[in-house]
Amino acid sequence: MVDKALGTGGRKSDKDLKIRLKTARGRKTGSTKWLERQLNDPYVARARAEGYRSRAAFKIKEMDDKHKLFRKGMRIVDLGAAPGGWSQVAAKAIGSTDANPLIVGIDYLEMDPIPGVKLLMKDFTDDDAPAMLIEAMGGKKADLVMSDMAWPTTGHRPTDHMRIVQLIEVAAAFALDVLAPGGVFIAKVFQGGTEHELLHMLKRHFKSTHHAKPPSSRADSAEAYLIAKGFKGTNDTVPGEGEYDR
Ligand SMILES: C[S@@+](CC[C@H](N)C(=O)[O-])C[C@H]1O[C@@H](n2cnc3c(N)ncnc32)[C@H](O)[C@@H]1O
């Protein structure tokens, strides 16, 4: 049920225009709140109007505006690609087409095809996932590995923290394997959740690291992004870094 609350004078203020929902039978308060937020979110409306599959599209656009991530003809791996907003933005920005696809996306969720993007439906943490991604890239190095992956939360903060850090570590190890020198790695992290060790490792392998909280990332969410730029390449890898050595 959708209620549009009207102001008393008959004139609608922005606040009054907010769509409020009553909790329908069988729908939990949490889902009602989520739905209410979606219906009132300007980025959701913009995504729909501009043909993007997710509001997340604006996060990568905003990070690109600031950090100049995309350039024509580069190769990209999109980890946790569904429903496809980041890949849509990237394909357009770099000129990836079905005739010459430059992007490979992976998600364990099924996705509708995206022009210019090869999609794998697979869990990235499966042992054979990295090899499948490399094969899908035709064995070529990538210029950008971008990860928006996050496990569904359990509600148990230490567990959630551990799981996200682990996921970022696997993504980072993959990035070190497949990036060409000068390449960029972006990963969703959670504020206060970037492990010291991981950040330290990225600092050694990349010329610069940055934290980003794009305006479209909800202010009340702990979500943030880590951007590592200027991959130093295989010759510059530092001995003694265990699993990150190649
Ligand atoms: C926030 S969404 C990504 C949104 C996407 N960037 C976009 O613009 O539409 C996170 C995605 O990560 C995926 N994901 C999480 N863990 C994964 C894993 N281990 N392997 C593959 N996909 C994973 C989820 O299924 C989900 O679709």
From TrEMBL:
Residues 52-231 form the Ribosomal RNA methyltransferase FtsJ domain. It is an enzyme of class 2 (transferase). S-adenosyl-L-methionine binds at residues 84, 86, 107, 123, 148. Gene3D superfamilies: Vaccinia Virus protein VP39. The active site is at residue 188. SUPFAM superfamilies: S-adenosyl-L-methionine-dependent methyltransferases. Keywords: Cytoplasm, Methyltransferase, rRNA processing, S-adenosyl-L-methionine, Transferase. It is found in: Cytoplasm. GO terms for molecular function: rRNA (uridine-2'-O-)-methyltransferase activity. InterPro entries: RNA_methyltr_RlmE, RNA_MeTrfase_FtsJ_dom, rRNA-MeTfrase_E, SAM-dependent_MTases_sf. Its EC number is 2.1.1.166. It comes from the Bacteria. Pfam families: FtsJ. It catalyses: uridine(2552) in 23S rRNA + S-adenosyl-L-methionine = 2'-O-methyluridine(2552) in 23S rRNA + S-adenosyl-L-homocysteine + H(+). GO terms for cellular component: cytoplasm. HAMAP family: RNA_methyltr_E. PANTHER family: RIBOSOMAL RNA METHYLTRANSFERASE, RRNA METHYLTRANSFERASE 2, MITOCHONDRIAL. Belongs to the class I-like SAM-binding methyltransferase superfamily. RNA methyltransferase RlmE family. This is Ribosomal RNA large subunit methyltransferase E. It comes from Devosia litorisediminis.
